[in-house]
Design a protein that fits this description.
Elements (H helix, E strand, L loop, with lengths): L1 H10 L13 E8 L2 E8 L1 H5 L16 H8 L3 H15 L4 E3 L3 E2 L2 E6 L12 E8 L6 E5 L7 E5 L7 E4 L8 E2 L8 H16 L4 H11 L5 H23 L7 H21 L5 H23 L8 H31 L5 H26 L1
Parallel strand pairs: 1-8
Antiparallel strand pairs: 1-2, 2-6, 3-4, 3-7, 5-6, 7-10, 8-9
Helix pairs in contact: 1-11, 5-10, 6-8, 6-10, 7-9, 7-10, 8-9, 8-11
Length: 368
């Protein structure tokens, strides 16, 4: 029964997991001659469809996924009037405080061409407003149900960059600059970003870690595998984030799915950790690191705080992986790990399930 509960959510995973993953809005603001301009790079179709982005991992799993897909197939000319009406209501929840409330208005909408309707597109919405006299600080109140936002200040020295969840409020940001975060603040902000990319959003990474877990009930083989995987993905995460290595996600994603299949299938036929498995895990870790770097790039790393941001994100990823292992152990290993039929009744069926899902993803990401 526990195995069924563990595997049933995996069997119902949506198509093109990466393609429909909910990503944060990027908000860039600048001030000139008493006016503020706020430019939002956002998935407007998700907002128009009424998806609660605070609690959503993937648009396909939303009750409004059909509406989203319909909107995703519309042209910019068709969507623009709908966006204009939506923003009029949405601005009642989004507010700027700069020595009093700032009245924002929508001044520009840019929606890309349709392209592949299965892929999300980031539209650009420009909001403008006049600052109140004597305003020296600004504070953003980001609406509930709007998901996360990366808020970035432009045009000043030591600009502010922060990560705000739906319903959250930014700190008071000096309009003249100087609100750059300390390394510790940046590190702290990016830990939950890394954790969130594993739990709940990193379904393929979760399956890979579970594949490592189900090889053996002994702790030593698991620690060796996780350490090897961690070192490898940390290397390519850093290289990718600094722009030293870039590989098309269309290549990386199928290979990540193939890595899931490999470790799961080997669990079925192998009873111990082989040296060549370690070498392959290291290679697979390099691939997963490139995937992490792609996600991290979507958040807009603060250029002058790259190292603490990377460290925070990486620590968050490791905490997410350890949480996956702890949950698997608490659900199965602790209760049944010493049972003589654990391998045949738990580890092998679970590995087979993981291999089947990974195989489906390989086919999907290559051919569909």
């Amino acid at each position: 029964m526990i195995l069924v509960l563990l595997s049933s959510p995996l069997l119902s995973l949506p198509k093109r997991t990466q393609a429909h993953e909910v990503t944060p809005t990027i908000a860039d603001f600048s001030v000139a001659e008493g006016d503020i301009t706020l430019t939002l790079a956002m998935n407007v179709e998700a907002f128009l469809a009424g998806i609660d982005l605070d609690g959503q991992v993937d648009t396909d799993t939303s009750d409004h996924s059909t509406d989203y897909d319909l909107l995703r197939g519309m042209s910019g000319d068709e969507l623009t009037p709908m966006v204009t009406l939506f923003v009029e209501d949405w601005l009642q929840a989004l507010s700027l405080d700069a020595n009093g409330g700032v009245l924002l208005r929508l001044t520009k909408v840019q929606i890309p061409e349709i392209g592949d309707p299965t892929l999300p597109r980031l539209s650009s919405l420009t909001l403008s407003g006049e600052l109140n006299e004597g305003a020296a600080f600004l504070q953003l109140h980001w609406p509930l149900r709007s998901g996360a936002v990366v808020l970035r200040q432009n045009g000043v020295e030591d600009p502010y960059t922060g990560y705000i969840l739906g319903g959250g409020v930014s700190p008071a940001i000096p309009l003249q600059g100087g609100a750059v975060q300390t390394p510790l603040e940046v590190f702290t902000d990016y830990v939950p970003v890394g954790f969130d990319h594993i739990l709940p959003k990193g379904l393929d990474h979760i399956l890979f870690v579970l594949g490592l877990y189900f090889l053996s009930v002994r702790m030593r083989p698991l620690l060796w595998q996780v350490t090897c995987f961690t070192v490898a993905h940390s290397i390519t995460l850093a290289l990718g984030a600094f722009g030293l290595v870039q590989i098309d996600p269309a290549i990386v994603e199928p290979l990540i799915a193939a890595s899931i299949v490999f470790v799961a299938v080997e669990n079925i036929f192998a009873r111990r950790l082989h040296s060549w498995r370690m070498a392959l895990i290291f290679g697979f870790g390099l691939l997963h690191g490139l995937g992490f770097a792609t996600v991290l790039g979507e958040f807009g790393l603060p250029q002058d705080q790259m190292v603490p941001a990377l460290l925070g994100f990486n620590i968050g990823v490791e905490l997410g992986q350890l949480t996956v292992i702890a949950l698997a152990y608490g659900a199965l290993g602790y209760w049944f790990g010493k049972h003589p039929k654990y391998r045949g009744r738990v580890a092998i069926p679970a590995s087979l399930t993981i291999a089947l899902i990974g195989s489906y993803w390989v086919v999907e990401r290559v051919f569909l």
